[in-house]
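Researcher: Go.
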Amino acid sequence: MQHFTTTIPTMKELEEWMFRKMQDLFTAAMRTALEKLDEIILEQRDRERYRVKAERETSMNTVFGNIRFKRRLYMDRQTGKYVYLLDQHLRFEGRGKVSPHLLETAIAFAAEGPSYRDSARRLEQLLGYPVLSHEAIREKLIEQAEKPVKAVEKRKARVLFVEVDGLYTKLQRRKRQGMEHAIAVVHEGWEQVGKRVRLTNKQHYLHRSEGDFWEGFGDFLTEQYAIDEDTWLVVGGDGASWIGECESYFHKCIYMLDRFHVARDLKRFVGHLPKIWKDARQALARQDPAALMAAVERVAIEEIAPDKREAWSAYKSFLRRHRKHLEDYRKTLEANGIDTTGMRPMGSAEAQMRVLTKRTKRGGYSWSERGARAMLTTVMRSKQAGWLEEADEHKVETPERVFSVRKILKDAIRPAKGCVDGMIRLLRSQWQSRPTGLALKGLKGY
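Model: Structure:
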C-alpha cells in the first residue's frame, strides 16, 4: 500500500461527502421541478379568473437542504385576493418556509421525545445543518395539532370497545399545579398480527371543553361511527365516578372495571398473603366476581397492616358496589344474540396510557395547557389507524391537461445543452402579451 500517492478517505468521510453531493443535486432538481410546475400552471390556468401579478422568489428548508425558487403571484378576480397557485395545487403553505416532509419529521421526533431541544439536535445531526430551533418545532407542533382534520366516512359497528382513563400533567406558571386530561381509546375489537394482538381501527378522544366528558364523547362517536339504538358500548375504566356515569348516557352500555387497577390495588393490600393473592388473581383472570369476593371476604382485618386497615375496609366496600362490573361482558352480549368470537377481556387502558405518559411525564416536565393538549393530540394521532389528513382549507381547479411528473423530474436532472434547449424567460412571464413578447412569438418557426 506504500506506493499509493493519493490519500484514500475513510468510509465516514466518503459517506458524508456523497450525502452532501446528493443534497446539492436534490436542491437543484427540486428547484427546476417546482419552477416547471409553475410554468404549467401559468399555461393552463383560468385566464379570465387569474391574472399574473408578479414573479417572486422564496426559500424553503427541506430534508436535503435549503431551496430557493421562483413562483408566480396571481390576482383572483372573483375574490379580489392574491394567491400563489403553485402553493394551492401542491397543498403547501409557501410562507411556512418548511417543507411538509421536513415538518412531519420534526413533529415525529418531538412526539417521540424526550424534548423539543433533543428533536432539534437530532434533525441537525441527521441533515448536517441547523433546520429548526426547539421553539420553532414546538410552535409548528401546536399549529398542526390545532388544525381540523379531514372528515372521515362513518363506520358501522355493532359493538364498540372504549377504554377510558385520566392523565395528570404538571402545569407551568399557573395557580393550579396540574390538570387531568380525560382520554378515551375506541376500537372495534382485536386482530391477530403474527404473534401479537392489535386493536382494530383504534381512535382516540381527548376531552377539551369544560362540559361533561360523556356528552363530548357522544358527539365524537356520532362523527366517527354510524351508531344507532342497536349499537353496544363496552366501557372499561378504573372505577372513577365520572367514568361510571357512562351507563346513564348510553342506552346499551356495559361498564367493566379495569382488571389491571383491581389487581394492583389488591396486591397492595394482600400481596403478603400468598393463598389469598393467588385465589384473587385466578378469579380476576376468569372474570369470576363471586370467587374474587369470596377470597376478599376471607381476609381478617388483623392480617392487614395497621396503617392500611381503614383503606382496606373502604376498598372492600368499593368492590362490593362494583361487583357486577367485574362480570364478563361477553355473557351479556351473547344473551342479546351477538357473536363474541374473537372478543377478548377488557384491560388495555393502562397500556394505552403508558404511551402518552412516556412523553408527557418523563423527565419531570411542566406544560402549558395548550402545549400539553397539542402534544397529547399529536401522539394520539400518530398511534391511530392511519394518520388523519388535514381538512382542505381551499380547493382549486386542477389543470385540464394531465402532465407527467416523471418527465418533469427527468428534465429537472438533465444537464442543460445551451440555447437550443433553453427558453426566453420573457415569454413565460406577465410580459408575454406586451409588444416585445408578441413580436418574439411572431418569429416562432423561423
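Model: Residues 159-365 form one domain.
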